[in-house]
Amino acid sequence: MNYELFLAKRIIAAKQYKSSISSPIIKIAILAIAVGMVVMMIAIATGFGLQQKIREKLSGFNGHIQITNFDNNNSEITLEPVSKNQEFYPEFKNVSDIKNVQVFATKGGIIRTETDFEGIIFKGVAKDYDWTFFEEYLVEGKIPDFYGEVSNDVLISKEISNRLNINLGDKFNILFVKENPSKAPWIRVVKVVGVYNSGFQEFDENFVIADIRHIQKMNRWTEDEVGGFEVLINDFKDIKIKSDEVYTQTASTLNSQSIMDKYPGIFEWISLFDNNIYLIIVIMILVAGINMITALLVLILERTQMIGILKALGSNNVSIRKVFLYNAAYLVLKGLFWGNLIGLTILFIQKYFGVITLNPETYYVSEAPVYLDFWYIILLNIGTLLLCLIMLIIPTLIISKIDPVKSIKFE
C-alpha cells in the first residue's frame, strides 16, 4: 500500500487542516494557480487566434502564394498579362498539398455616385475562384456567379457600402482611366449582389470583387491572358516550403511570392505575439510556483511534530517528502481545475458572443479572436503541474533538517 498517498489524503481530509494557520495561505496559492491558468489560456487563445485570423484574411484577399510576371511592378495593379497555358494550371501536380490554383487580375478604378467618388481596386476573378473566405464574411446578399456570360455582378465591402451609401441591389458606375489620359475613360455599370465585412480595413476600403473578363476586355487581353495566379495551400505552416517548391516549378519568366514576403511588416508584427505569450506563461508559472512554495513551507512547519513522529517510526526523508508533494499536487490540481473552468468559460463567451472588441485599424480584426486547441490546453496543464512540482521539491528539503527528538513534544 502507498502509505505516503494515504497520509496525504488524511491530511487533506482533516478538519483541522481546513481551519489551520496555513489555510488562508493555501487558498491564496490555489487562487494564484487558477488566475495564472486563466491568464495563460487567454494569452494563448487570443494570441494564436489573432495570428490565425490575420493570416486567413491576408490569404483570403491574396492567396497564400501569388504567381505573376517577373517585373518591377510592386503595386496591387497587374500590368502585364500571363498566359493561362501553364503546366501548374488548373492543377499543381508537381507540388503536393495544394488546395486550389485560381486566376486573377486587378485594375485601378474610381467609383462614382451622384454625391461621392472614391478610388478602388477592381479585382477580377473567374469561375475557378475559391469563395470560402468571402462566404465566411458575407453579411448581405450572395456570392457572384461567373460561370455564364460576362457578369456585371460585384461583391463590395461593408466599408464601401457605408461610405458611399451603396446598398445591396444598387447599380453604380466604375470609371477606369485609359492608357491615353486624353481619351474618355471606360465606364462599367455594375450591380451589388453581395456585401462582405472582413474587418481588415486596409483591404475592405479598397477591394471590389468582379468578373475578370471585364479587365481582360479593357486591357485588350485574350481569354487565355490573366494578371496572375493565386495558389492556396492546405496548411499555412508549410507556406515557406511550398513557396520554394512553387518557385522551382514555375517558368523563369514568372515570379512566385508568398504573402509572408509580400507583407513582411505584418508578419513580423504578429510573430512578436509569440514572445509575449511565452513571457506571460513564464511569469504566471513563476508566480504560481512561488505561492505554492510559500504554502508548502508553512504546511511543513505546521506539521513538524508529525514529521518527527514519522521519522521516529522509521520513515525516511524521501517518504515524508512524498507525503507533502502529494498534498501539493492536490492543491495544484485544484487550482488548475478552477483555472480551466473559468478560463474556458471566458473564452467560449468571447468566441460566440464577441464581448471584447478591438480597433480594426490597429489589429485588423473588429473583435478579439479566440483559437481553441485542446492539445495546447492539455500540454499547458501538464507543463504547469510538472513545473510547479519540480519547484516544490526545494521547500521539502527542509524536512531533512527536522530533528525528531526536538520536534516531538509530549504534553
From TrEMBL:
**A single Gene Ontology CC term:** plasma membrane protein complex
**GO BP terms in the entry:** lipoprotein localization to outer membrane
Q: Show where the MacB-like periplasmic core domain sits.
A: 28-236
Q: Which residues form the ABC3 transporter permease C-terminal domain?
A: 279-404
Q: Which InterPro entries match?
A: ABC3_permease_C, Lipoprotein-release_system, MacB_PCD
Q: Which UniProt keywords apply?
A: Cell membrane, Lipoprotein, Membrane, Transmembrane, Transmembrane helix
Q: Name one Pfam family in it.
A: MacB_PCD
Its placement in the membrane is given as:
Multi-pass membrane protein
- Which ranges does the record mark as transmembrane? 25-50, 277-302, 323-349, 374-399
> Where is this protein localized, as stated in its record?
Cell membrane
**Main localisation, per the record?**
membrane
By sequence similarity, the record places it as follows: Belongs to the ABC-4 integral membrane protein family. LolC/E subfamily.
In its UniProt entry, what is this protein called?
Lipoprotein-releasing system permease protein
Species of provenance: Lutibacter flavus
